[in-house]
Amino acid sequence: MPSPPTIHIDSLARRFGPRWAVARVTMELPPGASCMLTGANGSGKSTLLRCLATALKPHEGGIRFGNRDLWAHRDEIRPKIAYLAHQLHLYDDLSQRDNIDVWARMGGLSADADALLTRVGLDPKRNDPVRALSAGMKRRLALARILIKAPELLLLDEPFGALDPDGRQLVVDVVREIQNRGTTLVLATHLPTSAIHICDRAVVMEAGQIIWHGPSGDLP
Amino acid sequence: MSRLKWEHVVGILGLLGMIGGHYAGLFVAPPERMMGDVGRIFYVHVPVAILSMLMFSVSGLAAFGYLMSGRMGFDWLVESTVEVGVMLSTLLLILGSVWARPTWGVWWTWDPRLITATVLLLTFVGVMLLRGATTNPEKRATWSSVATLIAWVNVPITYKSVQWWRSLHQIQTPQDAISEPMRIVYYENMIAMILVLVWFVAWRWRIAKATAMAEAPEPLPAEVSP
Amino acid sequence: MIRQTLSVLRKELLVEWRDRSRISGLFFFAMAIVILMAFASPSEGVLKQQAGGILWIGLLLASTRSLDQSFATEMEHGALEGLMLWPVDPRAVFYGKALANTLVLLMVALAIVPLLFGMYGAEVRGSIPVLLGFLVFGCAAIGAPGTLFGGIVAQARGSSVLLPLLLFPLVIPAVLAAAKGTTVVMEGDPMGQGRSWLGLLVAFNAVHWSLSGLFFGRVVEDG
Fold it and tell me: Alpha carbon of C5 to those of A104, A111, B96, C209, C217: distances in Å?
């Protein structure tokens, strides 16, 4: 699996209406880095993550994936990014297996639905539509969906939400597996205690700017 | 006193021209050979028809300009030309109706020219409604530009409708079939109307720009070095 | 891109199949319109003549529901954004969805036609393949711009009334051609007008299937 390039975030700014959600952020993610974004609600973590995921276009500054501008080359770079968002990107009317199947086909990828579902602790034989699943199970399915890809950059937005302790441990285990392949990880959470085990570095954001960064063990 | 903007000068000239042109059309020009005095509406109806289609074509070009460049100036031009175009189209249908009553005997008929003209008006009204329903300025600009380009497809269809289908409406009259005094009055009205429309569009563009400026973002704070 | 389009189409049809209540809901909606219109008509003879037109009114009104539903599934969990980020080529997303929407409408149309025979005493004196041609191209004419505008309206929150306002004026020429053509074929096409109406319908489809596909990407993506 190819190793990810260094990701440079250069004076990035993004607003919604008149308000700047990310107001000049500069940071660097070396290959294989694991970085936690933390801060209160509304500090800009999710917005920064969405810019990295190419869901939002920067208004000022930019992001470079290696030496290529991320937005300009987003069509080529998107297959290398796996993004677990607030929104689950699932189809309520389809079953768990259907969802995995459908997303794999649309991406031109092959996926062993049984293996993926088992890996995230779901029963592959269950044929109920996703709308009948609990919030925690839907989250696990969303995680299984992004595992279809073998990404160079893994972006997780509040991955521990709605999960019981087993579920949280599952996320930690799965992420560690992906990290062992050299994938760069950026994880946004407002509960840093769960993420400390998988992130070397931490960044604290407030009002769209970075106010602290350092090893995650040193988090204030 | 602030300097008078150029478009107001143009507009006043245009209004004067229209007063003159209307007077000429009603009292000076000879009556039309077959329709008599009823035919005098020709001096307003035809310019309004041509200018409404031209106006929507400008909208289309502005929309294309926005999609290619992303510059908001083009979006403001879309906003102003679509509004003025809708006003013209509405006027056109009213004038046409007034002309139809004495000549065809009815206020309205299901005729290809009338149907396509109405469809054209409604599609651009749809663009205005879409703009009104969207709060995000960038999405508003993108979506209304797309909707404008799609609506523009109806312009050539409306124009050609009298040639493609059997219609009660006259086909376009060649220039030399119109007598000289009538042609002069026609051009006077046309030019005056163009001046007035340029005035409207420019003024409306400034309003759109001012509204956009009022929504402008707060300045970016300086970068914090932790 | 063709493979992606087909996989999107497959996904759309799978969603329709899994929740079959939706397409039957559409059928009943269209049927209700067809029945109600019958009450508005003065006589049975008139009803028979109007059958073609009423079919298309029913389909057009049902289409807004079907288009709304098609995008509701995408917005529930943000799947539309998920498609763009996966990435799936936006043109594939458009053509897959537009084809699925067309097929759904066509199935409703095919289910309504026997109803017209039964309730309106309509009959087909002209060529059945031509009638099918009008059904196919008429549904497609609603499907393509409907999918484009559906994509816009789904993102403009709380504007379910906006879709008919945007879509209906645009597709009037096509629905007119389809309605006239259907009526003409049912009467046996004595004056040979069928071909020109079909030509108009095909031209409309050619223009709008290409334009809508071209613009769909811009309309669903941010930036």
Answer: 14, 19, 47, 14, 14
**Domain membership flag for residue A162:** yes
CB B43 within 8 A of CB B20: no
Q: Are A174 and A21 in contact (CB under 8 A)?
A: no
Place of tokens 């009205």: B189
* Domain count across chain A: 1
CATH number for A210: 3.40.50.300
List the alpha helices (DSSP H) in chain B: 6-23, 42-69, 72-104, 112-133, 137-152, 154-164, 180-214
What are the pLDDT digits (tens) for B136-184?
A: 889 999 999 999 999 999 999 888 888 877 777 877 777 777 778 888 8
Q: What is the CATH number of domain B6-168+178-209?
A: 1.20.120
In a domain, residue A44? The reply is yes
Pairwise CA distance, residues C97 & C148, whole Å: 10
* pLDDT tens-digit readout, C5-33: 999 999 999 999 888 888 888 999 988 98
* Nearest residue on chain C to B143, alpha-carbon basis: C219
Compare C168 and B215 and report the one with higher pLDDT: C168
Task: Write out the residue range of the structural domain in which residue C201 sits.
Answer: 2-220
Distance CA C151, CA C81 (A): 11
Sequence-distant (6+) residues with CB within 8 A of C146 are C63, C64, C67, C98, C101, C163, C167, C171
Could you tell me which residues come within 8 angstroms of residue B193 by beta carbon, excluding any fewer than 6 positions away? B14, B18, B47, B48, B51
Query: For residue A141, is it within any domain?
Result: no
The domain limits of chain B are 6-168+178-209
Q: What is the count of structural domains for chain C? A: 1
Is A157 strand, coil or helix? strand
Residues constituting chain B: 226
Partners of B119 in the β-ladder: none
- Residue B152 with chain C: CB contacts under 8 Å: none
Closest residue in chain B to residue A24, using alpha carbons only: B223
pTM of the complete model:
0.91
> CA nearest B220 in A: which residue?
A23
Chain A 53-72, CB below 8 Å of chain B: which residues? 60
Tokens of A35: 């970085």
Cα gap A74→A70, rounded to integer Å: 6
List of chain B residues whose C-beta atoms are within 8 Å of the C-beta of residue C169: 119, 122-123, 125-126
Q: Which chains touch C (3 or more CB pairs under 8 A)?
A: A, B
State the chains in contact with B (3 or more Cβ–Cβ pairs under 8 Å): A, C
In a domain, A189, yes or no: yes
- Picking from B215, B217, B223, the nearest residue to A24 by CB comes out as B223
